[in-house]
Design brief:
Oligomer: single chain
Distance between the termini: 63 Å
Helix content: 55-70%
Number of strands: 2
Largest sheet: 2 strands, antiparallel
Order of helices and strands: HHHEEH
Shape: globular
Strand content: 5-15%
Radius of gyration: 18 Å
Number of helices: 4
Length: 131
């Protein structure tokens, strides 16, 4: 009976991990559907304005981080930690900066999450007309 309980606990732990992975993959897919939209189906400026611009800044913060010497930072902990905060809609604030460092925004993860959801809904809306 103890062996069955241990096996059940192990399976449940693995299931929790996979569910977490699935949430992050869905979030990444939504972000990527919205950013860099240059396929001719939408106005080329669509992903450069409003909420979508904020999503691009967040993407850069997560995936294009650099250290003090300008070297790329490829930290899975940084990526997964930030995506989990985004997925949970954390009220914690994050500073997002444009690549040219001319724009700087301080927003919460919950605000970025709302932007992702709204932009994705706009993109997939059956009533939305493109070009």
């Amino acid at each position: 009976l103890d062996a069955v309980r241990r096996e059940t606990d192990l399976l449940l732990d693995n299931l929790r991990l996979e569910m977490g992975n699935g949430r992050l993959v869905r979030l990444l897919c939504k972000m990527n559907f919205v950013t860099e939209r240059d396929d001719g189906t939408v106005d080329s400026e669509w992903s450069e304005t409003g909420d979508r611009y904020l999503i691009k800044l967040f993407r850069d913060y997560v995936f294009h981080a650099v250290d003090d010497d300008g070297r790329p930072v490829a930290s899975m902990a940084h990526v997964v930690g930030n995506l989990n905060k985004l997925d949970s809609g954390s009220p914690e604030k994050v500073m997002l900066m444009s690549r040219d460092e001319k724009s700087c925004l301080v927003v919460s993860y919950s605000e970025v999450k709302r932007c992702v959801e709204d932009a994705y809904q706009e993109l997939t809306s059956p009533t939305q007309t493109w070009r």
